[in-house]
Amino acid sequence: MNGSPGGLLVAGVGNIFLGDDAFGPEVIRALERRPLPAGIQVRDFGIRGMDLAYALLDGCATAVLVDAAPRGHRPGTLSLIEPEPPAGTVVPEAHGMDPQKVLALAAHLGDEPLPRVLVLACEPEVLPRGDEDIAPGLSDTVREAVDGAVDALHTLIPALLADPAAPVPPLGRPMENGPPLAAGLPGPETDGTEDR
């Protein structure tokens, strides 16, 4: 499904063979059982960063990336992050799925401003560092967070449809709303239980 002006993209990102990095694709699978409102583009991009960069340039006004991102919280904690626009110091990368590099690639490829991008991130428990450490399947802790992410999307998406520029609604416990940080970078030390 192609994006449309004013459209909304929900994108699962991550490598299904690297433990909890499969969080994004698993949330997209769970949305098949509990679909979002009609007209929302929901896609599992896996590790196809170039495809995601082009999707961000395909007329959507807002994109929500669902990803595993170490932020220094307890495993399974969900964070809602609004990354800063990519700085000129971030090197675009055509292969791989580092969200900041994908945003930099999209900015490099397109002439128009990027859509608003939010990241619904889950703190991983098992995140192998290299392809030689193949570990398919989510940890139990992160698997339990999948339903919470689906609930969060069902709260977030109607709010964004009503007003794409609105402040993000609170996720509620045991989740946290994060400050504007780059996805995948460590955030402030917290146990994630306080309301923001």
Describe this structure in words.
This protein has helices at 23-33, 49-56, 99-109, 140-162, and strands spanning 7-13, 41-46, 60-68, 78-81, 116-122, 176-177. The radius of gyration is 15 Å and the shape is globular. β1, α1 (23-33) and β2 form a beta-alpha-beta unit. The protein has four helices and six strands, in the order βαβαββαβαβ. α1 (23-33) packs across α4 (140-162) and α2 crosses α3 (99-109). It has a six-stranded mixed sheet with strand order 2-1-3-5-4-6, sandwiched between helices. It is of the alpha/beta class and 196 residues long.
Topology of helices and strands:
Blueprint: E1 7-13, H1 23-33, E2 41-46, H2 49-56, E3 60-68, E4 78-81, H3 99-109, E5 116-122, H4 140-162, E6 176-177
Parallel strand pairs: 1-2, 1-3, 3-5, 4-6
Antiparallel strand pairs: 4-5
Helix pairs in contact: 1-4, 2-3
Contiguous helical run count:
4
Q: What is the strand tally? A: 6
Q: Helical proportion?
A: 25-40%
Cα gyration radius (Å): 15 Å
The gist of it:
The chain has 196 residues and is an alpha/beta fold. The protein has helices at residues 23-33, 49-56, 99-109, 140-162, and strands at residues 7-13, 41-46, 60-68, 78-81, 116-122, 176-177. The protein has a six-stranded mixed sheet, sandwiched between helices.
